[in-house]
Design brief:
- The protein is an alpha/beta fold.
- 45% of the residues lie in helices and 11% in strands.
- The chain has helices spanning 21-30, 44-53, 62-70, 80-91, 110-122, 150-166, 179-183, 185-197, 211-221, 241-247, 259-276, 287-293, 296-305; strands at residues 36-41, 58-60, 99-102, 127-131, 172-177, 202-205, 226-229, 251-254.
- The longest helix is centred in the C-terminal third of the chain and has 18 residues, at 259-276.
- The chain starts with 20 loop residues before the first helix and ends in a 9-residue tail after the last helix.
- It catalyses: (2S,3R)-3-hydroxybutane-1,2,3-tricarboxylate = pyruvate + succinate.
- Belongs to the isocitrate lyase/PEP mutase superfamily.
- This is Methylisocitrate lyase.
């Protein structure tokens, strides 16, 4: 389903404010039963490409942010400032398109969790997920994870929900548990139910391994929407969009969808330079093509509308 973003004229002839991306995401969850498909983006360029393809929303991967912004593994290196700054840039490339962003553990106790929600809200992020790992977290598809108590997890979600409500924000709060690996399926479901009771809008069980688990968590959390993290070659089998919808999921994210092909393509080109001295890049990919993908036409239009002539011959 495609959601438009029309505006109407307000008083004094000015256009009314566009619908916030968070509100649009909520409507996508409440006004349709369609599965929301969100490609993983890790920087401005990958986000621009996803927008060019025409997705209804985007997902900012934490692992991808650590890798691209910091050159580090997903082991808790990224701070709130790292993640918020990255998310704000991506969310505002096209503010009409909702962005869900990883918010790790919330970056501290209840006050820090509330601060995280407030900063993501003010940055234009439409949804965020907060997990129950310890502060020195790791990627959900690595072994050796540790989780906090269910009470601490519930406090994180409660603080996030209170911050959302205080701001009168529609930002979608997603509760993620990594307890499947550490404590089993029943405990993971118990934690998600506690998180929903504390104010979470969406449930996220990380590291699912079977269709039976997937179907059951969707049924037992109903009517709360459940998110599927589709990490290729990770703990979860590769399921298609059709399979995910049939299992009962409402959101599916693809964190590695851009990272894996980018690695292969960049590495192979660098190897060609090293071994042959040429890149063999497709001749159709010119500098102008690159700049067009990342907003050349829009930038030219702004300059022209202001009476400028700097880009007339670009």
């Amino acid at each position: 389903m495609t959601y438009t973003n029309g505006t109407a004229n307000g008083h004094n002839g000015h256009a009314a404010s566009p619908t916030p991306a968070a509100t649009r995401l909520r409507k996508m969850l409440t006004e349709s039963n369609e599965l929301i498909v969100l490609p993983g983006v890790y920087d401005g360029f990958s986000a621009r490409i996803a927008l060019e393809v025409g997705f209804d929303g985007l997902y900012m991967t934490g692992a991808g942010t650590c890798a691209s912004k910091l050159g580090q593994p997903d082991l808790g290196f990224a701070s709130l400032n790292d993640m918020r700054e990255h998310a704000e840039m991506i969310a505002n490339l096209d503010p009409r398109i909702p962005l869900i962003a990883d918010a790790d553990t919330g970056y501290g106790g209840p006050n820090m969790v509330a601060r995280t929600v407030a900063q993501y809200h003010r940055s234009g992020v439409a949804g965020l997920h907060i997990e129950d790992q310890i502060q020195t977290k790791r990627c959900g598809h690595l072994g050796g994870k540790e989780v906090v108590s269910v009470n601490v997890f519930q406090q994180r979600i409660s603080a996030a929900a209170a911050a959302r409500d205080k701001l009168a924000s529609d930002i979608v709060l997603i509760a993620r548990t990594d307890a499947l690996q550490t404590d089993g399926f029943e405990e993971a479901v118990r934690r998600l139910k506690a998180a929903v009771a504390a104010g979470a809008d969406v449930a996220f069980l990380e590291g699912l391994t079977t269709k039976e688990e997937a179907r059951e968590v969707c049924q037992r959390l109903a009517p709360t929407p459940v998110l599927l993290n589709m990490v290729e070659n990770g703990a979860t089998p590769s399921w298609t969009v059709a399979e995910a919808k049939e299992l009962g999921f409402r959101i599916i994210i693809y964190p590695f969808a851009a990272l894996a092909p980018a690695y292969e393509a960049i590495r192979s080109t660098y190897k060609r330079i090293k071994e042959t001295g040429v890149t063999d890049i497709d001749p159709s990919f010119t500098p102008k093509k690159l700049f067009t993908v990342v907003g050349l036409k829009e930038a030219t239009a702004v300059d022209a509308a202001a009476g400028g002539q700097l880009y007339e011959k670009v």
